[in-house]
Design a protein that fits this description.
This protein has eight helices and twelve strands. It is α/β, with parallel strands linked by helices and 298 residues long. The chain folds into two domains: 208 residues, Spore Coat Polysaccharide Biosynthesis Protein SpsA, Chain A (Alpha-Beta Complex); 67 residues, no CATH class. The strands form two sheets. Strands 1, 2, 3, 4, 5, 6, 7, 8, 9 and 12 form a ten-stranded mixed sheet that branches. Helix 5 packs across helix 7.
């Protein structure tokens, strides 16, 4: 029984290096998928350089997407212009397309009883808590802490449900797995039989890892946000690299994760909590000098 770690890639060299090192002892194969188009539809070059990760070369399967998905919605097909309403829909389709390309790779190399793990590459699970030999749950979801800007700046308002593990024989596709609700539903909930995102046989692992987001410079954050799934919301917020730099210095975010989907998520500020080194993952503690620029102890 093997474990395959599947993730997507944009240009997060710092984070993918951390992910590979933290998960290496548990994972038999890393499958990394990168597209030549951003989530906003911008053409981009390939950023993943396997030569920088020679230690893991024999474990890495690198998947490249050359084309965009079918069915994108444009205001005027001859000019390929997207309306504001279709920005998000097209972004979601591009993300699902990239995730499900990983599924194709898994089908070629994994056996039916192998465990398949999916998460965005900045969602790093605590695999020390996953018992593959005695696991009885169809789906395992990791409840993770959310960090912004630095490895020890915690957003303690919410928990993040990123990484999911399932056996290949039970995997429909990765977009489906990503949409499964992080909740174990009781047997009397009839909707578990009617909907494909609600299940009784789900295991939620507490203290299940770390979601390290925006671990890049203010300029890089700004550039990336213009290309992500929520690029329309980010544009509306009118943020600049200078504003992001100010947030980092003051240890705050202006993204309201608890806001209703119909509400503006930007504007109100929320403080980040500084953690001590002894509260960080073992690998970061052991490599404090290596990550000194990404730890805030001032």
């Amino acid at each position: 029984m093997k474990l395959f770690d599947c993730t997507t890639y944009y240009d997060e060299e710092l984070i993918i290096d951390l992910r590979l090192n933290m998960l290496d002892q548990y994972v038999d194969k890393f499958i990394i998928c990168e597209a030549k188009f951003s989530h906003s539809g911008r053409k981009k070059g390939l950023n993943f350089d396997i030569s920088k990760f020679s230690k893991f070369k024999d474990k890495i399967e690198y998947v490249i997407i050359d084309n965009e998905p079918e069915g994108l919605i444009y205001e005027n097909d001859t000019k390929k212009k997207e309306s504001h309403l279709n920005w998000r829909l097209n972004s979601v389709k591009r993300i699902a397309f990239q995730r499900n390309k990983l599924f194709d790779a898994v089908n070629e190399i994994a056996n039916e009883n192998d465990y398949i793990m999916y998460s965005d590459n900045d969602e790093i699970p605590n695999l020390n808590l996953f018992d593959s030999e005695n696991n009885k749950s169809k789906i395992t979801i990791f409840e993770q802490d959310l960090f912004y800007y630095k490895f020890n700046l915690l957003c303690d308002r919410i928990k993040w449900y990123g990484t999911r593990i399932i056996k290949k024989k039970d995997l429909i596709n990765f977009e489906w797995l990503r949409q499964v609700k992080p909740k174990k539903y009781p047997f009397y909930r009839i909707d578990t039989f009617l909907k494909k995102d609600r299940y009784m046989n789900v295991n939620i692992i507490k203290n299940g890892g770390w979601h390290f987001t925006r671990m890049i410079s203010p300029e890089e954050i700004h550039k990336k946000e213009l290309d992500t799934e929520h690029h329309d919301e980010y544009r509306a917020s009118k943020k600049t690299p200078e504003k992001i730099k100010d947030f980092i210095q003051r240890r705050v975010i202006d993204h309201d994760h608890l806001a209703d989907s119909r509400e503006n998520k930007f504007g109100k500020e929320f403080p980040l909590k500084q953690l001590e080194l002894n509260e960080m993952p073992k690998y970061i503690k052991e490599n404090q000098i290596k990550y000194s620029n990404w730890l805030d102890f001032n």
